[in-house]
Amino acid sequence: MLTIHADSRGHALVVEGERVVGTGVLGVLADGYPRARVRRWPGILTPGFVNLHGTELLEEAYHPDPREAGELGTEPLSGDALARLALDEVRWGGSARRGVQRMLAHGTVAVAGALCRPAVADAVRRTGLDVLPRTGRPGGVPSLDPLACGIPPQVPEPRERGSVASFAVFDVADEGELTERGASTCVATVIRGRLLYRRR
């Protein structure tokens, strides 16, 4: 099914399956693909972010289940707090799924770092998030918001015809406002043509 994703500036991508098949101005693309469904998003279309702290956030931190909030809180647990939990593979898998959802809510389309726990690697693979290699540990502080970790964010190549249809939309006027307000302004994240996150 053909879908045109358009932002408030009139920039648009045409998606078919897992691929981008057209880019440009909404009006031109709508004329060129008259049978495509059009999704209009507030804000700006971007390639999304690569979260450089994939290992730290998914294999060295536990994302509590909402049912555990009274006991464990809602923020990721690491260090001594993580060690006290003595997690098994089932809980690691659940943590990774929740962590990935929180990453998607910040416009993440790929993570960097080795994922060695089978349950974690499987949870990431099922979403379609790209896992990129890295050398050593990045600087900064691991954060679900790639703009808040204290190092320059890594952004994939711009989406073009033939690219994998992975991108994010942020409810801001421009890139400057995105930098100022952060990635929590994300309203939608698409991974390989699938809308995996949409802000309610």
Automatic annotation (TrEMBL):
Protein's recorded name:
Uncharacterized protein
Question: Superkingdom of the source?
Answer: Bacteria
Q: What is the organism field in this record?
A: Streptomyces murinus
GO molecular function terms noted in the UniProt entry = hydrolase activity, acting on carbon-nitrogen (but not peptide) bonds
